[in-house]
Amino acid sequence: MEEKINKYINDITNISNSNELDAESIKEQYLGKKGILSQLLSEFKSLTNEQKKKNGKLLNEFKILVNDKLKNSGVTKKTNKKKSLNIDFSLPSTFEKTGSIHPLSIIKHKIIQIFENVGFEISSGPEIEDDWHNFSALNMPQNHPARDMQDTFFININPDTLLRTHTSSVQIRYMESNDPPMRIISPGRVYRNEDISARANCFFHQIEGLYIDENVSFADLKKIIVYFLQKLFGEKVKTRFRPSFFPFTEPSAEVDIYWGLNNESDYRITKGTGWLEIMGCGMIDPNVLDNVNIDSKKYSGYAFGLGIERIAMLLFQIDDLRLFFENDIRFLRQFRSLNLS
Ligand code: DAH
Known about the structure:
The protein is an alpha+beta fold. It has helices at residues 2-14, 20-31, 36-45, 49-73, 75-85, 103-117, 131-134, 168-177, 218-233, 264-269, 286-291, 308-316, 323-326, 329-332, and strands spanning 121-122, 128-130, 154-155, 158-163, 182-191, 203-214, 239-246, 249-258, 275-284, 299-307.
């Protein structure tokens, strides 16, 4: 045994310690489970006491030599380094994203971004409104037939408290407490007493727009709407303005985009015309400006209102409005890869 150990001592002394890979294999070869040292130790166990005395010292020398060699090569240092440097417990965890952003939020943010980029600010108002802000100030006095167009939820059968039927109420609130020039959009939830179907729900979401300054014209309105639709649907989108009626704007228009007629469901969406109504708009009626004490001789402005669900249905090709509100995870998961930028 003595001879054997001396040979190993000789071997290990002659190994150069320049290469780390070598050092790894030396470690395995000498200190591994079935390595030289463990073989020698088991041999050592069966020696007589006399032989143990003689070989024990030599064996110890050999062990120290192997350890020194490895220390110099950096293998042992390297493993220590790994433990102390590669784990930083103060870093935040990387959880896998399990949720997704709701498709209506994605579209809402897209629309907000487009208008914010051209100087519109965001304003919001309450969902529980009074008659003045939702109707009267918007040129719809009591018994005005246009009130029937918006089936209203009244609260406690009190005709003065209601769930707002449109975000146009925010126009009034903003104009009451600010002076022109003003340029806002107002996203929010609105309520109507309608039967729930694939095309209608008792609540939905709108974005209202309002711009008031001196000399604002219908041309300004047209410019901003076409700009917005091109940003949202692409440069090539075809648009048209159709004369319409809203009590709070004069003149009023509805805006259509050309959706085309490629397949059967397109025919159904556009009722066979290829054109699809996307929003209402117009020049603010001077009566409305007078109602909020803005000088209608000096100032003019435009307003517009659009439904977020309708735009989301078009952009994501969704044919049933109810899907937005059922929170079916199989539906929502499909929007996982989309974000708000
Ligand atoms: N408030 C209208 C609605 O809910 C939409 C609308 C039309 C808003 C014309 C406007 C507008 O600001 O000018 O049907």
